[in-house]
Design a protein that fits this description.
Layout: H1 2-9, H2 15-19, H3 23-47, H4 53-84
Helix pairs in contact: 1-4
């Protein structure tokens, strides 16, 4: 939920991944959102006089949806792994 809200309002990716414990993915997404996503959105809007938003906005919405689905699947996989782990039985001492 945090990931989607920050994507919608600030255009930053990766915070949800960091909260889920996926630090490598979270940091890469956070850095790329400032170095790639924002320059593409700003320059694409300026150079096309706003017409480029017709392509950039659907692309951004698709990226938000894909990011949320991938994060959700990762959290479910981590939860399933924790729940399926058998208890270790130690021999009596």
């Amino acid at each position: 939920m945090v990931e989607v809200l920050l994507n919608l309002f600030l255009g930053t990716y990766g915070v949800g991944w960091l909260m889920a414990g996926e630090t490598t993915t979270g940091i890469i997404l956070l850095i790329c959102s400032f170095l790639i996503y924002w320059p593409v959105m700003i320059l694409g809007t300026i150079f096309t006089l706003g017409i480029g938003l017709a392509c950039l906005v659907p692309l951004a919405i698709g990226a938000i949806i894909l990011n949320a689905i991938l994060l959700s699947n990762t959290i479910k996989r981590k939860t399933a792994y924790i729940l399926v782990q058998p208890m270790q039985v130690y021999p009596p001492q």
